[in-house]
Amino acid sequence: MAPVEFYFRPPGTTGSQDILFERDVMRSLDGTGATIANKAYEHHYAMYFQDRWKPSSKVAVKAGVRVETNKIYTADRQKVLGSLLAPGVPTNIDDLEFHQWVTMPNFGIAYNADKWGVFRGTMGRGYEWLDLGGGDGTSHAPYVLATDIFRANPRTSPTLNQTLPGGFPLGLNFGGTPDDSIHNGRTYVNEFSGSWEHSLPRASSMGATFLWRRNWDYQSGDDVNVTRDLKTGALLGRPFPQYDAIRNTYNPNYTWQQNKSLQLMFTRNFVGGWGVNANYSYIFQATYRTRWNPTSTTDLQFYGISPEDVTSARVNPRNHARLSTFFKLPLDTTFSVFYLYTGPNRSNVMTGPFPLNTAAPAVALSNGRVVSDPFFNIPYPRGRRNDADMLTAKDSHIVNLRVQKDLSLGFGRKLALSADAFNLFNVGAYTGFLSADARSSNFGLPTNYVPARVGQVGLRLTF
After folding, report:
1. pLDDT category, 281, cuts 50, 70, 90?
2. N-term to C-term CA, the chain
3. Which residues pair with 237 in a beta bridge?
4. Which of 40, 180, 324, 428 has the highest CB neighbour number within 10 Å of its CB?
5. Nearest to 456 by CA among 418, 404, 415
6. Could you read off the pLDDT of 402-418 as tens digits, one per residue?
7. What is d(CA 23, CA 25) in angstroms, rounded to the nearest whole number?
8. Beta-ladder partners of 346
9. Is the distance from CB of 402 to CB of 336 less than 8 angstroms?
């Protein structure tokens, strides 16, 4: 792979007098740009079993289990990084970057109570899909390069006198320790649901569903190459100053999430003179913190804020509704309505110890390298806790109308004339803010407006 070169053309000159001011050289694992040597691959095996039983005429049961194992490798990682890194660097250089066995059971039961309807219950566990090149240290992208930059400084210098070496083609972030004392795994969801459905006359039905989900083994990580002031949180140094943060990704469960929802439904099949499909949902979503991560740039222990104070349960909309209906009118005309309602989003008002864009203090590391303090001016909730001081956006009402007239042209041909109105109301509503930081000039300014009204006329010929 040839280097990429950048030239400067002085005013009043031709191409023959261009001055080279930058050359970007691609470097792979073998130290050259000739090949892209590192290969990432995954071994994934799974087995699934499920069966169904009918113990009685009114009861049906199903149960199953899925077992998976996967291993992710980056070839030559140990061979190359082992010789390049300084002794004792806290990273895992094994070619095997991730391995885990997971078990996902599921169970369901249904009971037909005749005139009282059908009752159902399910429970199960599911794991996130883990792919190559996650970007968080769990695995590394295959076939990557580093870029070494050789630059003229100033730009008119006759030589490329400044060298900006790129990092390792494979980063130092990792997932889990070599001895497996800290093991990286996939986030999983435990789910329970209960539902009721009751048939009504004229091809109609009504029902209710309760869903409860918990996300656990939430992936996070620690910076294993940092030293901080225990009182202020300021950066003091890095044990291996030639490198920046080295992140160990695993499942410390610093946070976990919960979702509970109740949905009410009514349906009348789209037959006859009219039909409707309507539902309302109340959704409760919350994020909880179990403890602080002393190496994170987002945690607030140094402000005297406790993990309980940052419980977040009011950010996401709770009320949701949807209605879709149609009516048959005289003269082969159909009128339909679609309505979608979403409750308001909320944002915690944030602030910080210094104005925005204040330059972070410079920290001189033990090898003389100077870096900015990444822990400087971390924002925190203005109310000293989440869900206390918030900005509330507008409700969103999406209303679409449609009128359609069918004309028979004979010989199996039909012409459909239609007129639509989209986003009939609520065109001035906004669902978010440019910034929720009280220090920002964009604080509280609305954004994400509901789309404007749109009209549409259509012709459709069927033959």
Report:
1. very high
2. 58
3. 227
4. 40
5. 418
6. 999 988 888 888 889 99
7. 6
8. 392
9. yes
Peptide bond into 381 cis (omega under 30): no
Is residue 304 helix, strand or coil?
A: coil
DSSP letter for each residue of 2-19: PPEEEEE--TT--GGG-E
What pTM does this model have? 0.81
pLDDT, tens digit, for every residue of 77-86? Answer: 787 777 778 8
pLDDT of residue 401: 95
Q: Distance (Å, rounded) from C-alpha 433 to C-alpha 426?
A: 17
pLDDT one-digit tens code per residue, 84-115: 788 889 888 888 888 999 999 999 999 999 99
- Whether 452 contacts 427, CB under 8 Å: yes
C-alpha–C-alpha distance, residues 208 and 265, integer Å: 6
Are the beta carbons of 455 and 423 closer than 8 angstroms?
A: no
Q: Helices in 237-322 by DSSP H: which ranges?
A: none
Q: Classify residue 377 by its DSSP letter.
A: T
Q: What is the pLDDT of residue 393?
A: 95
C-beta atoms surrounding 363 within 10 Å: 19
Give the tokens for residue 334. 């159909």
- Residue 67's φ and ψ, nearest 5 degrees, are -115, 130
Handedness of CA 26, 29, 31, 35 (dihedral sign): negative
Dist CA 245 CA 372 (whole Å):
12
| Token couple for 62 | 């199903």
The two tokens of residue 162 are 């400044």
**Distance between CA 284 and CA 191 in Å, rounded?**
14
Record: fold of 40-136+184-462: Maltoporin; Chain A (2.40.170)
246 burial (CB, 10 Å; 0-12 / 13-18 / 19+) is buried
Gap between the Cα atoms of 370 and 366, Å rounded: 9
